[in-house]
Amino acid sequence: MKYNTLGKTNEEVSVVGIGTYQFGGEWGKTFTQKEVDGLFEAARTENLNFIDTAECYGDHLAEELTGAAIQKDRDQWFVASKFGHHFHGPNDRTRHYDPEDVQKQLEASLRALRTDYIDLYQFHSGTDEEFQDDKLWTMLDKQKKAGKIRHLGLSVKKQDYMDQIRQAEAVGAETIQLVYNRLDRKNAEDAFPECDRQNLGVIARVPMASGYLSGKYTPGASFEENDVRHRHPQNEQEAALQEALRLKEKLPDDVPLAQWALAWCLANSSVDAVIPGCKTPEQLVSNAKAVDLLDNKDSSLFTI
């Protein structure tokens, strides 16, 4: 495994992390604690230490499963979570950025994760109006001073987030999490110069384009109703799968598309880490091996 310093946090994180959105039950599978424990055992073997979760991946469900899995060695992990939503069911969330409510969300996340502190607490996909609330950031700063939060960050929507990035310094944010993958890159690349200027730690989310770059699906694929991809516009889904197939056909036979997709993100010097999801230990191990491609001497590999 390789490690990067996550921006101005000065924390060393594995460049391949573990996304946990799938633990919330919206990706076509319900996880047992035993299955999650197995994933984290594989993560230990591969020397991953970076976990990204959220209050609204299930009603703190992903946090609960994660917290139980890492309780025995909590201090070995860098745990990032988020705030701003209440989960009411699949595709049913309400928005909550009021300082008092966020403080309650934080306490619930700490209980679910079975921890006294969260390494990185992230403002999650809020509007500019919700972001520009001095009382919110004052409350969060107090929680930092109390030791319940170690670092603050932003996890932004796909568009219209430059104002929030420009104001990251003012609110004390040290990291930025944004959508960046081979199929969806322009908005992030436009933001990278400002991220670099502020030394914001950049976390690339959806690095395999919701699994379309996993190599598992071919054009014409369909998804069950309990899978979030079932709600994606059919024309956009088909276009993504067609482009994934084109990329796969251009890669050397011994380079898996999923590993290449992660390495492609990490090959950008602005990106500190990627946080792909996984459903099996085998997928996690495969994700971790993406770092091997970063040592590839063929400079054309990431210009496809």
Automatic annotation (TrEMBL):
Q: Which domain of life is it from?
A: Bacteria
| Pfam families listed in its UniProt record | Aldo_ket_red (PF00248)
Instruction: Extract the coiled-coil ranges from the record.
Output: none
- Entry's InterPro entries? AKR2_Oxidoreductase (IPR053135), NAD(P)_OxRdtase_dom_sf (IPR036812), NADP_OxRdtase_dom (IPR023210)
The NADP-dependent oxidoreductase domain is annotated at 16-293
Name this protein carries in UniProt? Predicted oxidoreductase
**Species for this entry:** Marinococcus luteus
